[in-house]
């Protein structure tokens, strides 16, 4: 659907003498006061002629442009809202914040929750990687990170604020009064916007070839092929803060306007010759002609620049390619700093994948440039430059630098794999895009660097010009989460339960309640639904309660508790029949529940402790609470040290000993986000306007639907029993609390007593006994090494040697000492023309180990042994096989045949 003409015929245009025209290039309608204008003043219909325009000498930096934008709309009744992180952790379908409207999706835009202010204004740092391959090539039109200034109004049926005319008028006043742009230069190009299931007409505001803002009017919901009018109509605008700065400064490229003196500093640090401002400015002016989807247009653009300047095309190619790579590094290092500063942990999945992709693309570019500089040194410059604008960069500086260095080490490891991968591909006629992506995903190998290695082998490797964009697009959205697993119940039972009334949840009213009375709502075999219950259903990583239900004097075991929507289902050990309305008495297994409560509250304590010890980047990646133990998976870029684990454990126990109050409470989700930030969603994003938070006083606040103790002292104490890296960027902590910790300690005592008994000592003397044994072991190793040396020095006297066609065959006796045997084989095969064999009898079989000097390939001997029925093999200079029913002389004869067949 496209908006009809009436959608764009606004009163403000007619009142201010704007005329509707059609662009003579793209044929798109636009509105302008300039009666002579023939095109829409947007690329590719126009060049960037704003670079040559004369106007007010504003010279705004990015910081100044942001401030001017926010202040203008604040003066016009919009409350300034702080931006959210660049990691969209309030969204379960999206990894990165790609626009200011994302801050309010899906709960505010759908009307589930109110906006934090109405109307409001925000300058939101955004990250988009769809066009990552175009960064630098288009001189600033494409960036991976940018700020979107947005003023938003949420119009409800009973509260209408403003709509199209007012929005256009705000844009006109901002550009004319604030930016001192002649109103006749303004153009409002008609457009149509769709995204996130919504749609509406929009205007693109262009001046001098540069699009400065987009004004979107969200008024439809897309349902299949239909556009259904929304009850909530939203003004969704996006002003390009960096573009405002570039427009006022009129620098050679947008990068100069954004980064100022960092541009020259990066050229110097990278050891790359600077590119002349004149060449860059002319190139920028005609950059609108570059179509990233048509690589030939890049060359056509450079040919045009060369013609205008009267210089060689080759020189233009070299200069602009070099500049583009430096601009890429500038852009990417800022984006990396923002990602890491907001808590991204590089990994092979999720948001971490996108972060690592950008890091490796940056390091790949540095390698191509031949720059001898660490990635972290460049990122430090970005932190210093942007620290005042984004305080999280300063706050998390140590982590950002450490994570960058860790990733550089991993990238260096990747580089060592390239020659072997190139060897494996050398005989291939063609390597397709899917295989290149697979090589990148599995080995992290940038195709650009693989291409260099393949060229050395005379093999051409074709790489799509937008390779990294393709990879980024395939990973930019989170997989849709399925409904919680309710496979413990038959599908038809679930369907029947879905339509039942919501269960009254007594476990929230009193988490210490053990018994209750209720009435049957539905009895479906062994699945029982009551009108009220204190049984907690599985959720939030906490297992469902167990206990007993008494019906008509019959006491039945409840083996599990599940939930279908808001209906709690008690799963019984056996089937029953109970009519709706039948009275029942319930009793939970309190010991089991209390252990779960302790472990669940302990998980919140541990998570906050991990953040304080390791840094703000720590994020819950998974959790499970059982009566026996609890586990917490956290994001972190490297293995934990023993000291770090000890600090986490000590901090957690300090909070337990400090008797902090634990308080669950409900709050409007918008208020919760504004007050506590998006870290409340560590355990997941609830789909409600009102959410339940758990507050541990002066320690942690997080959304949680589980059951908890009311004071940290009730946890009793925490012992971390296991720490391991379960996947790239994810560390698992396992721990026990209270009586379970005592059980764990008792098990350790039993193991110590068993060890002490075997060593014929007491637990108290165990360390002394172990120390004595270690000393004795060292003495024995010294004696053993002496014997080995003696045997090695005198081996020629005790081995059987045969001469076969100029080859020395040595038959080594069996010693039962693997280390000695390895050294003997190594020593005896130092000289050329030598084969060493050793036979080890194992029941009716014989193991034959064969070692050869470097000039003899063991494969011919192995081939003869296999002909005789041997199983096993080897290559180059060593093999080990197993033969059935052969004696020593048989084996020697077979080996001799293999030696003769080799023709050495």
UniProtKB/TrEMBL annotation:
InterPro entries: aa-tRNA-synth_II/BPL/LPL, Ala-tRNA-lgiase_IIc, Ala-tRNA-ligase_IIc_anticod-bd, Ala-tRNA-synth_IIc_core, Ala-tRNA-synth_IIc_N, Ala-tRNA_lgiase_arc, Ala-tRNA_ligase, Thr/Ala-tRNA-synth_IIc_edit. GO terms for cellular component: cytoplasm. Keywords: Aminoacyl-tRNA synthetase, ATP-binding, Coiled coil, Cytoplasm, Ligase, Metal-binding, Nucleotide-binding, Protein biosynthesis, RNA-binding, tRNA-binding, Zinc. It is found in: Cytoplasm. Gene3D superfamilies: 2.40.30.130, 3.30.54.20, Bira Bifunctional Protein, Domain 2, Threonyl-trna Synthetase, Chain A, domain 2. Its cofactor is Zn(2+). Residues 756-783 form a coiled coil. Zn(2+) binds at residues 600, 604, 704, 708. One of its GO terms (molecular function) is tRNA binding. Its EC number is 6.1.1.7. It comes from the Archaea. It catalyses: tRNA(Ala) + L-alanine + ATP = L-alanyl-tRNA(Ala) + AMP + diphosphate. The keyword Ligase applies. Consists of three domains; the N-terminal catalytic domain, the editing domain and the C-terminal C-Ala domain. The editing domain removes incorrectly charged amino acids, while the C-Ala domain, along with tRNA(Ala), serves as a bridge to cooperatively bring together the editing and aminoacylation centers thus stimulating deacylation of misacylated tRNAs. Catalyzes the attachment of alanine to tRNA(Ala) in a two-step reaction: alanine is first activated by ATP to form Ala-AMP and then transferred to the acceptor end of tRNA(Ala). Also edits incorrectly charged Ser-tRNA(Ala) and Gly-tRNA(Ala) via its editing domain. This is Alanine--tRNA ligase. It comes from Metallosphaera tengchongensis.
